[in-house]
Amino acid sequence: MVTFHVEHEDGTRHPIEAPDDMGLSLMEVLKASDYPVLATCGGMALCATCHVEVLDGKDGLGDASDLELDQIDNLPNPTPTSRLACQVRISQELEGAVFKLRGESN
């Protein structure tokens, strides 16, 4: 199991514990945890509605693919640590990471 956090608009952080041995994406875990992630393309890195900002733990995520970077470049307000939750796999490298939802529903 791995524990990471989601930071809410008011600055509070909510921990989420997820299995790190099932190949799940961050998007899937966020949706299963009832966060308002649209993910209209179903995790294909085509819509960017699962946009998250990595507040802490970016080094453990690995590099974004060219497809992911293209989608991030088209976002209205990307940050230097923007990622698409559908492209981030749950692994031990996410232990202690902090994310902020930035997709269309936020």
Automatic annotation (TrEMBL):
Presence of keyword Transcription: no
All copies of domain 2Fe-2S ferredoxin-type, residue ranges: 1-105
SUPFAM superfamilies registered for this protein in UniProt: 2Fe-2S ferredoxin-like (SSF54292)
Transmembrane segments: none
Signal peptide: none
GO terms assigned for molecular function: 2 iron, 2 sulfur cluster binding; electron transfer activity; metal ion binding
Coiled coil: none
Keywords: 2Fe-2S, Iron, Iron-sulfur, Metal-binding
PROSITE patterns in alphabetical order: 2FE2S_FER_2 (PS51085)
Cofactor(s) listed in the protein's UniProt record: [2Fe-2S] cluster
Family: Belongs to the adrenodoxin/putidaredoxin family.
GO biological process annotation, one example: P450-containing electron transport chain
Protein name: 2Fe-2S iron-sulfur cluster binding domain-containing protein
